[in-house]
Amino acid sequence: MSIDIDSPYAVSDGQVARFASDGFIRLKDVFDAETLAHFGRAITEQTIALNTQTLPLEERSTYDKAFLQVMNLWREDETTREFVFGKRLAGIAARLLQVEGVRLYHDQSLYKEPGGGITPAHADQYYWPLSSDRTITAWVPLQAVPQDMGPLAFFKGSQHVEFGRDLGISDESEAAITADMERHGFPIVDGAFDLGEVSFHLGWTFHRAGPNRSHDPRSVMTVIYMDRDMVLKAPENDQQRRDWDKWCPGAEIGRIIDTPLNPVLFEA
């Protein structure tokens, strides 16, 4: 069996430049089928065991219809910890961010159930009390994601847009952000993911996903990285205050976020 999460993945200068311009990139063959199957079993088991959502889909909010979400699985299971701490993903993240090293912000599994709704347009960094834009999310499908399963889609070049940064995931964000993107001509890049393909996007890149019209769950693991030298900023909303307490407890405003929950995962 071929299990490899630590060997380097070559990212070209052109890919780094494209990521800086577009705010996201999709990379082929980051992991092979055996590696995804091995870690996917553990991630799925933990997601099912730790999920607290019990309402039927029709009774949930738009946010809760989008996916089952379980965070910081690395603290619950050694196999999942091995995946989250893998150097291949972290090395790609550091290369794309053009920083010397990256820390873990947190991980989260995102399982869009059969019949699950859209993931409304949003930018992740609305939720994060982080002082710079050197943040990146690796979106790792644990299987191929055809169009009818709701693959992640990106508004190309939107990472510099200020409008919509004060909106959490909601019906309002879907309507307002999508309209603003269309008004300013930011194209949406949407399409199926091959097995082993992984996307990376900046914290301020606007993105969304369609519903899962298939009969299978869309199983995805994400790892959120930040610059090794990221400083905690004063929270600007209640979500950021909660994130401070939950994902970087003990960190101090104006200082590097160096807590036991935010280890350095890669240094050049």
TrEMBL record:
Does the keyword Oxidoreductase belong to this entry? Answer: yes
Task: Please provide the record's keywords in A-Z order.
Answer: Dioxygenase, Oxidoreductase
**Which Pfam families does UniProt cross-reference here?**
PhyH
Q: Does the keyword ATP-binding apply?
A: no
GO molecular-function terms, A-Z: 2-oxoglutarate-dependent dioxygenase activity; iron ion binding
Q: Which InterPro entries match?
A: Phytyl_CoA_dOase-like (IPR008775)
Top-level taxon of origin: Bacteria
Cited PANTHER family: PHYTANOYL-COA DIOXYGENASE, PHYTANOYL-COA DIOXYGENASE DOMAIN CONTAINING 1
What is the official name of this protein in its record?
Phytanoyl-CoA dioxygenase family protein
Organism of this sequence: Sphingomonas panacisoli
Lineage at the top is: Bacteria, Pseudomonadati, Pseudomonadota, Alphaproteobacteria, Sphingomonadales
